[in-house]
Amino acid sequence: MTSAVAPDPGAAPGPAADPRPAADDDASSAPARGPVHGLGPEWETGPDGVRFRNAARVILLDEQDRVLLLHGCDADQRERTWWFTVGGGIDAGESALDAAVRELWEETGLTVPAADLVGPVFSRSAEFDFYRETCRQDELFFLARLPRQGAGAAPFTRDAWTDIELETIDELRWWDLDDLAALDEEVFPHGLPDLVRGLLDGWDGVTRPLSV
């Protein structure tokens, strides 16, 4: 479904030796940045006083039907951790599809043509606390699949990560759906393994709203 250049999806899932996603030498030698406190400029304050943004996310699968997730925390409450799909805010004048392509590249280094993304397959409006602020994010989810790649495939890279991402994301991992379903840690969106299973035989063209 995609012609992206990808890391070897046949590698066993699990934490990398380095707490950051596997990266090339240039990425691993990037200068350390200090802690970040506060949301980025793409978060606006609505009339109800709640910070909000529109976002695009990617449910990325490999040829073994594993899903790629990031592991993050709240920088001000580091004991709060969760797994979540690749994605982020939609820039002004940008379509959700273009934002999904851009965010996938920024967070993983993978280049996926827009034509190879399917969807949006899901929509979700979530309200949550982050950086001790109440936030609302309206999300559209796209689906993409990576082909099998050999040993020479490019590694993940964090070259384009924002300060907030460098501060709050510590792992990027391929998850088997059964292992993910058994995980005793929050995963967003909730029920992701079953949502993915419902897409394995194809998408019916309906964007389904998620409750959480």
TrEMBL record:
Keyword Hydrolase: yes
SUPFAM superfamilies, A to Z: Nudix
Lineage top rank: taxon: Bacteria
Homology family: Belongs to the Nudix hydrolase family.
Record's protein name: Nudix hydrolase domain-containing protein
UniProt-recorded Gene Ontology molecular function terms: hydrolase activity
Cofactor(s) for this UniProt protein: Mg(2+)
Sequence ranges assigned to domain Nudix hydrolase in this UniProt record: 51-200
Annotated segments matching region Disordered: 1-47
Keywords tagged on the record: Hydrolase, Magnesium
